[in-house]
């Protein structure tokens, strides 16, 4: 049996601390908390710390700092507390992001509902009221992987890739949702369309979301989304936000 | 006085690049920057300026350029045909681009990515701390016809310098270390991977370079259950059909495909410059050897300014002899570019 967490080198670019073999709530929280703590330590050899679903990556130039040394420091730091029991980060935001489900703007809602074994109306009702959390940001700038949805939505990725989904598309697979940053091919099913921009390079807040933030995707009409696209130039796509206390 | 470089003919192959934008991996944005960072250090050494200066990256083919003021320029990376108002230019060297003259850069003769450096560097407004275009992330865009790029103040006057060319422009052996999932591949698969001669596929861009081979793909049992993990440039990713992709500077920050190993950073310029069809091999090293190899590369980068030599030309054939600064503007052999704004 593997003893979690495990520490491995990543090329000559740093070390990776993996908290579990697959996605789990405690392992995700452990990765987030450990990243925040490593960032706060400000070790001089660490250039950046980031997370994926259940891991923390600590970027260190291993040509300058011996891997054994940084691994030992990380190991000692891991031993200081139970990271799996760590609370979520502070200062989180809850977003309400207006979303069109189905129609020509999101053509795979019905297909996803069928794979999940529910009718489209039930699917929309459930998806538009589910509150999900940003588990990690990755793949593209500011792009959130959010979860976890109910077991109903434990649906696989489609085998063939969709050639391209547009920016702001809401896609689903394996109990998770993603809002796409840029037009991209994907194996996830395109069930909703938002006008939300994850990445706003010219703004003073270029990355809209942070891991730990929570989101709800209330259902709006196609006409309403088109109206939002025209009037909301902030990148929020008509979304409202509140502090989580 | 603001100087402006005009792009007479833009296109998807041209972009402004520097050493990239570190510090945003947690937000899903990779460092990116030049595909061949070594070429940026060479350009900086030729012009006697810091390697942080932004330059124009040209993938496969160049363009035409003009400036309203006289500029110092340097050409590095993939050798391309180049001329100023019809007068041919030596690659891997610095030159004068007179005000109003047309610099024409054609297709690559050797390698894949050529670089045009300007004395003073390109002075576009930085985004998130860098001028590098990140095409995939949507930071900046490829250069278009009639674009005008501001050029920074030039504090040096040295020209007609050159650097020896190295052998990174025709593929070859890529040195790798084991990575996160190397151990999940069966030993016979790993062995076959190391013995195979690959060909650089024509499908290559700033995100990754695909390598072709004859024979079955390289796969691992656990491929489908791998949880999405951090990705770094150099990772050798195996997708569905078992063909390796070497991930490059604009790769995604995380990915769920297995990686058989990681090409060490000092060999990424060789991956970038390998022309389509060139032979590629992968050679695993233990960590200590890889670290020593990478350290030698860093030392080589630091030594570049000392290796710059005057470009020898026959003065009798130089129609433009009088336009040269023949005495002043020598560079210091002891100057260390790493002491300046790095």
UniProtKB/TrEMBL annotation, chain A:
- UniProt keyword terms in alphabetical order: ATP-binding, Hydrolase, Nucleotide-binding
Key word Transport present: no
Q: Give the species this sequence originates from.
A: Sulfitobacter aestuariivivens
Q: Which GO terms describe its molecular function?
A: ATP binding; hydrolase activity
What SMART domains does the record point to? AHS1
Q: Name one Pfam family in it.
A: CT_C_D
Q: What is this protein called?
A: Carboxyltransferase domain-containing protein
* Lineage top rank: taxon: Bacteria
Q: Where is the Carboxyltransferase domain?
A: 5-209
For this protein, the record's InterPro entries field holds: CT_C_D (IPR003833), Cyclophilin-like_dom_sf (IPR029000), PxpB (IPR010016)
Q: PANTHER family recorded for this chain?
A: 5-OXOPROLINASE SUBUNIT B
TrEMBL record, chain B:
Carboxyltransferase domain location = 26-301
Q: A Pfam family name for this chain?
A: CT_A_B
Write down the InterPro entries for this protein, in alphabetical order.
CT_A_B, Cyclophilin-like_dom_sf, PxpC
Q: Record keywords: Flavoprotein included?
A: no
Instruction: State the source organism's domain of life.
Output: Bacteria
State the UniProt keywords alphabetically.
ATP-binding, Hydrolase, Nucleotide-binding
Q: Does the keyword tRNA processing apply?
A: no
* GO molecular function per UniProt: ATP binding; hydrolase activity
Protein name, entry field:
Biotin-dependent carboxyltransferase
Q: What is the lineage of its organism?
A: Bacteria, Pseudomonadati, Pseudomonadota, Alphaproteobacteria, Rhodobacterales
């Amino acid at each position: 049996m593997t003893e979690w967490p495990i520490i491995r080198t990543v090329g000559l670019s740093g070390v990776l601390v993996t908290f579990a073999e697959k996605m789990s709530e405690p392992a995700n929280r452990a990765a987030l908390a450990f990243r925040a703590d490593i960032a706060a330590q400000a070790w001089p050899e660490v250039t950046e710390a980031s997370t994926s679903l259940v891991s923390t990556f600590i970027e260190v130039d291993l040509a300058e700092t011996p891997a054994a040394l940084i691994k030992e420091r990380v190991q000692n730091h891991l031993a200081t507390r139970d990271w799996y029991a760590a609370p979520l980060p502070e200062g989180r935001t809850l977003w309400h992001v207006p979303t069109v489900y189905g129609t020509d703007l999101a053509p795979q809602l019905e297909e996803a509902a069928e794979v999940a074994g529910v009718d489209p109306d039930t699917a929309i009702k459930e998806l538009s009221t589910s509150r999900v959390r940003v588990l990690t940001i990755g793949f593209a700038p500011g792009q959130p992987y959010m979860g976890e949805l109910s077991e109903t939505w434990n649906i696989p990725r489609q085998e063939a890739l969709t050639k391209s989904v547009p920016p702001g598309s809401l896609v689903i697979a394996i109990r998770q949702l993603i809002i796409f940053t840029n037009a991209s091919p994907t194996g996830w099913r395109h069930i909703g369309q938002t006008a939300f921009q994850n990445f706003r390079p010219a703004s003073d807040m270029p990355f809209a979301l942070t891991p730990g933030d929570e989101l709800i995707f209330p259902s709006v009409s196609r006409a309403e989304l088109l109206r939002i696209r025209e009037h909301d130039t902030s990148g929020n796509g008509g979304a409202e936000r509140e502090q989580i206390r | 006085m603001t100087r402006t470089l005009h792009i007479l003919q833009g296109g998807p192959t041209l972009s402004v690049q520097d050493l990239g934008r570190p510090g945003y991996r947690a937000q899903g944005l990779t460092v990116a920057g030049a595909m061949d960072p070594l070429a940026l250090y060479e350009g900086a050494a030729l012009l006697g300026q810091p390697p942080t200066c932004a330059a124009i990256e040209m993938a496969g083919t160049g363009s035409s350029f003009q400036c309203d003021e006289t500029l110092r320029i340097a050409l590095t990376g993939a050798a391309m045909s180049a001329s100023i108002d019809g007068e041919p230019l030596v690659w891997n060297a610095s030159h004068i681009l007179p005000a109003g003259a047309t610099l024409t850069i054609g297709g690559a003769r050797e390698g894949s990515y050529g670089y045009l450096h300007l004395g003073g560097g390109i002075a576009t407004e930085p985004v998130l701390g860098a001028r590098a275009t990140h095409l995939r992330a949507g930071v900046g865009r490829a250069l278009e016809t009639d674009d005008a790029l501001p050029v920074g103040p030039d504090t040096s006057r040295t020209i007609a310098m050159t650097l020896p060319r190295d052998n990174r422009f025709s593929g070859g052996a890529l040195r790798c270390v084991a990575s996160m999932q190397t151990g999940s591949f069966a030993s016979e698969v790993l062995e076959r991977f190391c013995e195979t001669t690959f060909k650089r596929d024509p499908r290559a861009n700033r995100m990754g370079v695909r390598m072709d081979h004859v024979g079955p793909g390289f796969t691992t049992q656990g491929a489908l259950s791998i949880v999405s993990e951090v990705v770094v440039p150099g990772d050798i990713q195996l997708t569905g059909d078992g063909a390796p992709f070497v991930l490059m500077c604009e790769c995604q920050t995380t990915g769920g495909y297995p990686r058989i190993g990681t090409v060490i950073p000092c060999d990424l310029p060789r991956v970038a410059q390998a022309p389509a069809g060139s032979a590629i091999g992968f050679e695993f090293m233990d960590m200590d050897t890889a670290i020593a190899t990478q350290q030698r590369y860093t030392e080589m980068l630091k030594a570049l300014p000392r290796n710059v030599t005057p470009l020898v030309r026959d003065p009798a054939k130089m129609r433009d002899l009088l336009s040269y600064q023949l005495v002043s503007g020598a560079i210091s052999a002891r100057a260390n570019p790493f002491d300046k704004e790095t």
